[in-house]
Amino acid sequence: MAFHPREMRYGRREFLGRSAVGIVGLSSLGTFVAACGGGNGGSSAADLQLARPDNPVTWPLYDDNPPIASGLEPEKGPLKIYNWNGYLWPRIKKDFAKEYGVEVEETYFATTDESMAKIASGAVDFDVFFPYQERLGRMVVGKLLRPLNHDYIPNLQKTIWPAFRDPFYDKGSQYTVPYTIYSTGIGYRTDKVTTTPWDLSNPYEIYWDERNKGKTYVLDDGREAPIHMLLKNGIHDPNTENPDDIELAKNELKSLLDAVSVKKSTDDYTNLPDGKAWVHQMWSGSAISAQSYLEEGAGPEDLGFWYPPDGRGLIGSDMMGVLRSGKNPVLAHHFINYLLDEKHGYDNFVNFVGYQPPFVSIDPDRLVSDGVIVKNLTTAVVRESDFLAGNQPLELSPEGQTLWQNAWAEFVAGVG
Fold this sequence. Notes:
By secondary structure, the chain is α/β, with parallel strands linked by helices.
């Protein structure tokens, strides 16, 4: 078994910290909607809602952007996929192409802003896209995504967790279906650290352990790194726009500069196993992938991953959707259903991506018995209960986005 590192995919996690104002940021939503044709069919910036677990959103359907009819035959292709680099097993594309007698083309992007600008330009005709919650509302209101016809996606009701069949951020799964689910915890080297997160009454305090000075990392991500600082202080709203909360998170991050000479990186999947880091804020999929990048003399038993046992940690998901501009919408639906097939989705996970699909059939025991992970990394397996209890970074208002961006920029300015 070998996992692909997905280096370029991580650019999507950095847009808040590295762009002053996103190309389709909320602060320019009105311009974005107009550029996408909004306003002609009742769509406007006012349609944007901030989806939250306690404020579920059913996105509108527009007369000038209807779902495709049922009972249509798949087009002849080529199927065009727009995706993060290394986020889809090449074998999946090859097998789908053979089964449907079509060509499959995949184009890659490195950052969120890059993908949004290209799609909004109207100059491309990609069929399948992998949206993200931070921009979902803007894509719907801008009519970039085509509503889904579930008649072509029966696997949604067969393989996927019930919570993801009708998620709060897209009630009825009208525009998206899930692709992967991941948690953000704390990875550590059991053979290097003296104290693990499990030994502490407040596990987030591990970031301040001076014995790990120079070997402590947070993710290079303007949302996820500050959110761990909030969770450390008992603040469980990852989308807070309270200036005092954001100031607290910023100051906590800045205190790590003197305490442990903290570094930032999205190479968590290699930094930890090769010994560059002893403590690393880490995505669960990276913890699983890390087994393939261990330095000489180290074994999987030297890797540890902490995530709150009560599930009230940081969690996220990626999705799949059909772009309105694509020329093969029926074929695109079939491809999405293909990835939601239990065998295809599982093979994509264990043979290449390393990030798990939210399949009912996947649990820690199965992954251990299948040899996907070792027992000491079962905490990196995400459960449906984690999704329900976890804290997810979601869309922000223009004002909130600016507060988060400015706080992150101030921290980054001090990192060596």
